[in-house]
Amino acid sequence: MSPAAFASALSCHPVTSQATGEVVGRVLEHGGDRPDLVVVTVTRPHAGALEDVVATVDALLHPLALIGCAAESVVATGAEVEELPAISLWAGQVGPLISFPLSATRRSDDDWEFAGWPDHVGFVPSAVLVLADPFTFPAAEFCADLGRSRPGLAVVGGYASGSSGPGGTRLALDDGVRHSGAVAVLLGPATEVVPVVSQGCRPFGPLLTVTRVERNLVLEIAGRPAMECMVDQIAGHLDRADIARIEGNGILLGRCVDPGILDPGPADLLFRTLLGVERATGALSVDDRIPLGGTVQFALRDADSATSDLDLSLGGRRADAALLFTCNGRGARLFDTADHDAAAVGRSLGPVPLGGMFAAGEFGPVGGTNFVHAFAASMALFRER
């Protein structure tokens, strides 16, 4: 039987060398050696030996490119291993690609310079996978910069969640390990890469127009004080159980990213948290800049909403393999069932090779624009052309 184009494996053995041998052996068995791309994620008990993991994978699989990191928890086919020893290994024949490190230098308060992007690519890229250090790499600014220089190119990935402080992040790239910046792989057109972002929100009420703003303060919605409008939307569209959840989960405001969309749906809205209310003015403080005249909708986020949104985001899709970067605030912290997001991928796509991690911020496009998300699940779905 010929090797499959994609393969993945998971080991929960506490000894790093044993766990590495197990995942490499399974990938060799199902996918063979010399894959184009390998993604390896390890939990904190294996973080100190990530160099050994990378060296073994490189020596036995001989991938063209390797990317990975240490994370709080890892993802594999049908499984999520949270805060226990685990190694997840994913490999695929994806065609031409380029791996490279990224670094960021602050030039002023709102201005960053990014270095490392390859000067000559040689193919039309389909997407870029990025794993980043949350302490040294401003991913939101990087996404904005990339949107200006390479509009339409999807970014999928996330912040490494394996360290609680600066200097502790461990990022793998090819045959080495880095502690800052970001690592990336630019994917070519040979394999179809479809980015999918589930923000885990349930919109309620109608779409509304912002009629007065000031920086990140929304002063008026539909010609009324924003707080007054929000209270009316809650009273008119939520039941008592939903209202009770607001205290623990808060309210979100979604804005349509593309003003050209006449009838935006949930997938076209970028949801951001309401940070507070100015009772004197009735203004809403939002973790975003909402443009004047923008279309917005209020939303809730809870376990049921996150489940239904993920199923909806994956519904009707097909893939031969997938990478999943899910928020470290999901998993057992949000859901009552184990392996929640990995199981949802399996329900929709079948038992396809799956890899990834729990991230400290997820990267993915909404409405064709890349953003850094919280409490989201960002995925790259791979299909052989």
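Next protein, fold it too.
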Amino acid sequence: MGVLAGQGRRRRLVILGGGIVFVFTLLAVASARSFAVLLAAFVAFYPASGAFVSLTQAEIMDAWPDRQAQLMARWDLAGAAGAVAGPLLLTAVLASGGSWRAGYLVLAGISALIWLGALLRGRPRPDSGAAATEAEEAEQRPWTARVAEIGAALRDWGTLRWLLLIEVADLLVDVFTGFLALYLVDVAHLTPAVAALAIAIRLGAALAGDAALIVILERVSDLTVLRVSAAAAALLYPAFLLVPGVVPKLAVLAVLSAATAPWYPVLQARLYGSLPGRSSVAVTLSSAAGLAGGLGPLAVGLVAQSFGLSWALAGLVLVPVAVLLVPGRGRQAARPGVGGRA
């Protein structure tokens, strides 16, 4: 989709078309009365989300190339807010006597308003002449040229480095979150209620970390933030695994969750920065790397099955070390106060 949509007007049409399908898939889920309809709606939902959400991210990155890290921090804050608001929305719907279907109807209504806002807002315009020229040139390139650009990007270690780090870092973010409740109940022998509380604390602390990152990136370079957060995680994660007691474990978990908040936005911004004027290529590579990254949870699960979950999660101590060793060379984020409107 990234290759065929390209950039400019064609990508804009794909975004708006994907938004329409996005809304209708949510409505289809809410109204589904058979497994076949429900399955078809969910299958259609994912490419629609790629068109509506992922390509919008690429448009934003193209419009403000000198503030990509700062804008990705805002993007990640929106995602973290959604992760926290989703369970609250479902709780409110169920408390008011509705069902899960009503929850999807509410999401469809919210998505329709977002689509309307995107339509009225129009396409983001580059904030510099060089970026505008770069965007025009990219819009005129045929899709076959973008295929060649993907091959060139795969041969560039600077781009592959960021792709690899995004997937490695995710092992201590989303993958760790997926195993967290199981670890707390089966290994730490805490109650399911405490495990549920731990998930809420993790999501809330990550939201706070995303909010703080927006302010920090206006004053500190993105690579400095990345290294400091990785160094903190290298100490906090083993402490979380080893510290006894409910309260100390939850407290360390909260700080760890805030510390790892900069990883995705900074690394994703660096990926876009390594491919100037080729955001569609970045979207395509991110999608492909995400498929490969799906082996991460499988690997953790296989190790847990063979040696136990405690040993499987202990192996993740290498993740912050890998992030900490990120080199300092490469395209730097804009200095504070530079780069136009955000």
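About the second fold: The chain has two domains: 2-139, 143-324.
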